[in-house]
Amino acid sequence: MRKKLCALLSCAALLVGVLAGCGGKSGAPGGKAPVKIGLLYSLSGVTSVSEKQLYNGTKLAIDEINAAGGIGGRRIETVFADYASDPARAADKARKLILDDKVVAIVGTCSSSARQAVKPVVETNRSLLIYPQSYEGQEHSDHIVYTGCIPNQQAEIFVNWLLRKGYRRFFLIGCDFVYPQVENKLAKEYLEKGGGTVAGEEYVPYGSTDFSSVLNKIKKSEPDVIYSELTGDSNVAFYKQYYAYGLPATIASLTTNETVLKSIGAQAGKNSFICVDYFKNVKNSLNEAFVKKYTATFHDGTQPTYAVMGGYNAGKFLGEALKKAADPQNTEQVAAAFKELKIQSPSGEISIDGSNNHTRLYCRIAQVDDKGEANVIYESEKPIDPKP
Amino acid sequence: MESFAALLLNGLNSSALILIAALGMVIICGLMNVINLAHGELIMIGAYTAYGVTQSLGYPFFAALPAAFAVTAAAGAAMERLVVKRLAGRPAETMLATFGVSVVLQQLANVAFGAQSKYVAIPIDGKLAFGKVVVPFYNLFTILFVAAVTAGTVLLLHRTKFGKRVRAITQNREMAECLGIDSSRVDTFTFAFGSGLAGLAGALAAPVKTVSPFMGGPYLVNSFMTSVVGGVASFFGTSAGSLLVGESTALIGGVSNDVLANILVLLLIIAAIRFRPEGLFAKERR
User: Fold this and answer.
1) Fold of A152-276+367-379
2) A35-149+283-361 is classed in which CATH architecture?
3) Chain B residues with CB inside 8 Å of A299's CB?
4) Residue A1: Cβ within 10 Å count
């Protein structure tokens, strides 16, 4: 009898607690309840290097918006979920953010594998994902806004620029997953149109740091340029080993950034080319202020890179969309607010293309000097329309 | 023909790095019968020590090697006293505990240093080039250094009193204790020595690979496979095993591609273990 009473009492207490908690969440009717968004990034595992930068950028943007008054007086509250570089876990965490935490939108994921795992989750639950990373394109969803650059804004311009500079024989290299495979397929199309040739095409296991056989193949095929989409540890190891072998061809990368340049040292990156939408050394007043703010805020060894800018732009676009929507807690209205949305970013004045949910971005090419700094040597005149 | 020679030489470099990583595992797993899942993280400690000594303190790389050995040996000794000793004779629990240690070490490094790879300068510039064959001088140094360390380890275990004690404990622990050998102390030193070797592997790899919190995983897998294929507790077997793994990966990778090479080498290892489970060059055990 006593045991039954105890059990009943504890159940009642639990129920009261849960109800009280629920009541607290909804807050006063029509009051200043914060707007909840989800941040889905990895702080451990293979992609955590890039994701920390994406996360820093998004956090900076959200803090700026909150400091400037938030969304009509309401704070943006971020719910963070760490998926540890595991695409399956990314899908689970996304589900939790949408169904349990009831976020209006999620900013996050990095690798294409993670994004493709989360895509069905946001589509089935009619939510919204802001995807901040540059990727291989060829995808569309009414429930995803893509704020990173895609091949026609990056690779196509880069390959043609290299061809114009006299590099004819391309050795294509990447890790073995969807992003490099699609990028290389497109690169081969651009080369065929532009009159270049493919000296070789190699894929290394994801995360592999041993390039001895690849370097041998490069030596044998004598290319003019190494066209690389290597990421993470593989990218760092490749630059270092390539430098040790002292081969003559220049490295041209779609993925390297200032943080990677710090990891490989000034010698290994010298004279190589990088093509992305943003560099730390972009010269405008907004960017100079941004770089100062970033280096003052974050002391975790990361640099202001295109990954940081991708995360920052994603956060800024979401903030503007939340302001523009009549009800910032209504995901469909927020998604509609993204169409042709324009912001002033340190990477220039950029806007969302309403027809495909991608972003019009500048294309920039930089060359690394002997101090390991990436200096912009080409910038597109205006933002380029995305054609996924 | 020339590119074949180039492949062989570069495969030798991969084999050297695999060997020194596996050597520590062979000592801990083979001689002490402990499955240490934090082996990759010991390699990581060696790599970060090399970074600290060369970049933060500014000493030359050749000071980083003994420093990496010492620091990782100390870490290994601590791990042995605090974790492994208390779970002696229970392999499943030891595996679980060392796995926990590995996760803790990874996250500690992530918090302390950040996830970006740290820069360690290649100490020897330049390469040897004859015909179509290119071998960086640092690769040659790696091969020679690892050969010296392996020889030194064999000498330590077969020509010194300490080595005799270790071998005695491996063959028959109770009898060795009856004869007055303090098996507990020898265990700690053996584990520390194996860890120190792992630290050397990390320091050697640091200039040409990466120094990051999650770098240890691939090394762990490779070390396990190599020591099992060669015959746990046999140094000759481990050397042969690492040569086999390194050269096959290089040669197959040279002919087709690295992804296929990984798959085929793994299949070869599975076949080898299937037909000789004790390893290709296993020693007699009583």
Assistant:
1) Rossmann fold (3.40.50)
2) 3-Layer(aba) Sandwich (3.40)
3) none
4) 5
